[in-house]
Input
Amino acid sequence: MILPVFTYNHPVLRQKTERVSEITEDIVSLVESMFATMYNANGIGLAANQVGKGLALTVIDVSEMDDSPSSASPIVMINPVIESFSDEEEEFEEGCLSLPELRDIVVRPSAVQVRFLDTQLKEHHMETTGLLARVMQHEIDHLNGIYFFERLTPIRRTLAQSKLKRIAKGLVETEYEIV
Ligand code: ZN
Output
């Protein structure tokens, strides 16, 4: 089921999400709906709180943009934690389904080691680079109540304010349903 995407400045996007301790029918159908919602909106990652559910769960699929074998998509991450960041950083232009019309350059570590559970609650450790590492950091930030614009340089963040106000007022157009 395609769900409406929650946008700035809804409280559920500001809160740290709760850990998932068991895989219920509701969780299984939420994961399915999150993939459907993400693909419908042409996204490459979606966190559960972006569809209004305060759970530490995210879906990612970067295969359309990165077909390298290491991209390992599609992927479901439950209770993900970044265990280490590379010292090396890189710039990349990010967008967000919860922040329509806002795109900007974010500097992040270029590689991360992550720990997460899959839908069988099996633990995985993964070292990633490139687009997948970028999207994982963006989505895990969501699960901790952080938007990408909070990672912008001070001047870029200031310049983003007028767009953020437009989003908060609902003055943006999207090809997917937003609330
Ligand atoms: Zn986002």
